[in-house]
Amino acid sequence: EPEVTQTPSHQVTQMGQEVILRCVPISNHLYFYWYRQILGQKVEFLVSFYNNEISEKSEIFDDQFSVERPDGSNFTLKIRSTKLEDSAMYFCASTQRESIEEQFFGPGTRLTVL
Amino acid sequence: AQSVSQHNHHVILSEAASLELGCNYSYGGTVNLFWYVQYPGQHLQLLLKYFSGDPLVKGIKGFEAEFIKSKFSFNLRKPSVQWSDTAEYFCAVNPYTGFQKLVFGTGTRLLVSP
Q: Stretch A49-76: mean pLDDT, rounded?
């Protein structure tokens, strides 16, 4: 069964460093999403992406964040200068169509900012 | 503010007990409703979803949920839980703004003792 994959599973970085979290969505999916979950808090929407453009973003997704689909398979989330409060589990998700249906989630990347 | 509320943060049950997890949302207009489950060490998986039609929806593993529009609720139920149902359960709402942003509740951690 096709699944969304994410790498790395755990990333530790120093405050102020740039990190890139990688996701490989399901191959025939066209809509991509990033969510995050700070420990003990709810899963929060960050951004949705379609046709090489951001379609919607939350207020969390400020200028420190960017997303990219650098090739036909990867979907990346970059945090330019990490802060302690960026420590969280980051989930990638994808769907095939815009119409409402199940989002398929990856296993997540745990980002720890020291 | 628009939000999704899950009333129970931690639930402990014995096997064969009945389960009901509450979910309320504060969005007006059309919404699409989901329950996701996250088993220990695994990624978020869809349990069930409601878009329209019969307000009682059945999902995988014997779960069901009832949409009560007048109460803005979408409670999850299972008549008889098993030890393998130990997981975290998330209610999510798509406010149907045109894209599939999901707004999650805080989650309910269920522990089923054998």
A: 92
